[in-house]
Structures are given as C-alpha cells and as structure tokens.
Amino acid sequence: MEILENERRYDLDWIRVIPFGFLILYHVGMFFVPWGWHIKNNQIYDWLVYPMLFVNQWRLSLLFVVSGMGTYFALSKRTGWQFSKERLIRLLLPLAFGMLVIVPPQVYFERLDKNQFSGDYLSYWFSEAFKGAYPQGNLSWHHLWFLVYLLFFSLIFIPIFLYLRKNPENALLRFMKKLASSPYTIYLLILPLYIFESLVEPFFNSTHAFIGDWFNLLHYGTLFLYGFLLIAVRQTFWQTILTHRFKFLTIGMINFSIFIFIIIQIRTGVWQDNAPVHFTEALFKVINLWSWILVIFGFAAHYLNKPSSTLNYCNEAVYPFYILHQTITVALGYYLKNASVGLFIKFSLMSLGTFLIAWILYELLIRRIGFIRPFFGLKSEKAKPLMKKV
Question: Residue 78 carries which DSSP code?
Fold first, then answer.
C-alpha cells in the first residue's frame, strides 16, 4: 500500500499522545528515586531507578523524531514563512506564558521545601519569582525546555526541509531510503548518536539550559532531522518497521538487558567507569534507544493507525496536559512527601491527582474559553461543549 503525500498517520498522533502520558508517570517517579529533582519524597527507592531507566532511554528521543515527522506534514501545507509564524505562535507564546504563570509555583514549592523562602505564593511571585536565572535564581522554563529546543530545530532546519521537499530525488533522501529499506542498515543511523553519546556527553552534561547544552542540542537535533527524513521516504520506512517489528523488539530486549547489567556493575563498584566501559555503555545505550523507537513505530503502525474519537480528544488535550502536569505534580509532592503511606499509595495519589486536576483545568477552562486556548498551544476557537463521549 503506497502512502499518499498528505495521508494522515493516526499512529503518529498516538505516538505523540502516549509518551506524554508516560511523561507524567515519569515525573511522579522522579519524586521517589535518588536522581536530582525539585521535590523529593521522605523515602527514596533505589530499585525504582531501573524501570525509570527503561522509559528514560527513549521517551524524549521518540518525541523529537515524531516532531520531525510532523514538520514534514506541516510544511506540505505552508510556506516557510507561514510555518515559522505558526511555530512561533504555538511554541513561543505557551513558553512565555508558562514561565510567567505555570512554572513559578514549582520553584516556589522547591524554595519552601529547602527553607529558602517563607511566605505566601503571591508575595513570592511579586518579590522573588523573576529574580535571577534558576537554579541560583528563580526564573526558569523547567519542563518547558522541550518547547525551546523544538522551536529552535523547527526554525533552523526550514531551508533544508524546504529543499528536501522540493527535490524528493536528492542524494540525501536516496541514501536515507537505502538505509530505511533494511532492518540492519537502518541501525547505521545510530552512528552520529554514538559519537555524541561517547565523545560529547562526558564533557557537556545535560542541563536543558540551551546555552552550552551541546549534547542535547546535537542528540535531539539529529533525531528531529531523522524524523523528517524517515517520513519523507514514506512506504520504505513503514514497510521495514511493520515487517521487522518483532526483530526490533528482540534487539531492544537484549540490549536493554545488557545495558542494565553494565549500569549495575558500575553502580555497585564492580566495574570502574573508565574509557572502555564508557564507550561500551554508550554503544548499548544508543542501540537500545533506537531499537525501542523502531519497536514503538512498528507496533503503532500495525495497531493504532486508525481514527477514533478518543484520539481526537487526546490529540488536542495533550499539549495543555504537558504544560500543566509538572506544576501539579510538584505541588502534590510537597504536601504528600511526609505522609505516612507507602510507595504504591503515594505514587497513585500523585499520578491520578495530576491527571485529574489537569483534566479538570483543560475541560472546564482551557478547552472552553477561546482567549485562553493560545496560551496552551491551541487554536483560538469558539467555546466547545463539555466532552460527552470519547
């Protein structure tokens, strides 16, 4: 079956929605693991690091690949200037709104938790919220860093993407088509990722501060470009991932097992984190993340490439949920951190609470009030009726 130029890929919409759902669970998990985060539980669970590592490996990389694919479709309906304007409105406006309204409560609760501020939120917002850059100061984009990087990639790649769309038989797309035609050659795409992981990441830790965040800029920028190139070769890519999805699944399971084994050896001090170990870990890490991206595309293409009313609702709701979720999670964590309940109850309360509060805000306010919608990345439309059936 040949993929038409502008055919809608419902599986890509699901791939966009579902990882953002995992993102909420992931950020709740950050409350309980020994990794640094804004608010921490009164008890840390070291074993939770390993399931967190599984999601951590591919979740953001996958979203940048999907964003690159979405850019391919968006540019088919717009000129470069129209696309730039649309990106600025949908990304820059929610980012500015988020930094002024959504993110400050997160920093406020962190300052309260660390005894760096005392007082009510309004006093904090008017006197402290915008003094200096986080972490020394308080102004930050926190989880909204994704919008900054996505906007940057969207704009700098426009000349390349326009050229590729106007010249579909160019050498780069012919090369990508050859790579995407085989379940083995498609793994050659990890070579740049391996170079970044092994040679750049050790010297430029992930900060999400944009300036100087060279590893993330190179890594996610490459994946964004891959998304555009893979969707551009269309049926070649889809046929490969559909036919070989179980092969990718097997490779992913084996590589994740080896990667976790290496991590355990390093964490327990059995192996020293020297150059040979680092280069070996980096190799299995990039093979693992690329395998799971291919697995998700393959199974989504097989099972999820069909329209549904649930998808229509979730596809619009996911952006507001993303903007809102971490603030809700941090607030819930602040008030629950010392509660004398176990991991399961606390994790459930924070997860369900984050989903429920975000849904109420979306359904009763964001979705229905026209002038609010653009601040959450939605088109300004007339008020919509309450959800009836999804």
Answer: S
What are the φ and ψ backbone dihedral angles of 139, each rounded to 5 degrees?
Answer: -80, 125
Give the other-Cβ count within 10 Å of 147's Cβ.
Answer: 22
Token pair, residue 74, equals: 């968006």
Residue type, 367: R
The answer for residues whose C-beta is within 8 angstroms of residue 223's C-beta and 6 or more apart is 61, 64, 65, 68, 193
Q: What is the pLDDT of residues 63-120, one digit of tens each?
A: 999 999 999 999 988 899 999 999 999 999 999 999 999 999 999 999 999 999 999 9
Dihedral Cα 292, 293, 299, 302, nearest 10 deg: -160
CA–CA separation, 177 vs 164, rounded Å?
Answer: 13
Tokens of 386: 């309450």
- Residues 249, 254, 257, 263, CA torsion sign: negative
Residue 366 has pLDDT above 50, yes or no: yes
- The tokens describing 159, both together, are 């000349």
Whole-angstrom distance, CA of residue 268 vs CA of residue 342: 26
This prediction has a pTM of 0.93
Q: Partners of 133 in the beta sheet?
A: 139
Of the two residues 3 and 149, the one the predictor is more confident about is: 149
Dist. CA 131–CA 344, nearest whole Å = 38
Q: Distance (Å, rounded) from C-alpha 250 to C-alpha 330? A: 37
Domain residue spans of the chain:
42-103+141-307
Cα 390 to the center of its chain, rounded Å: 25
373/379 Cα distance (integer angstroms): 6
Contact 99, 144 (CB under 8 A): yes
What residues contact 241, with CB distance under 8 A and at least 6 apart? 248, 294, 297, 298, 301
Please name the residues in contact with 365: beta carbons below 8 A apart, sequence gap of 6 or more.
372
Distances (CA, A) of 137 to 126, 131, 296, 308, 323: 14, 6, 39, 45, 21
Rounded-to-integer distance, Cα 66 and Cα 228, Å: 8
Instruction: Tell me the C-alpha distance between 114 and 188, whole Å.
Output: 46
The CA distance from 293 to 309, in Å, is 26
Q: In the numeric block, which tokens belong to residue 23?
A: 């993102």
Q: Closest Cα partner for 367 from 351, 353, 387?
A: 387
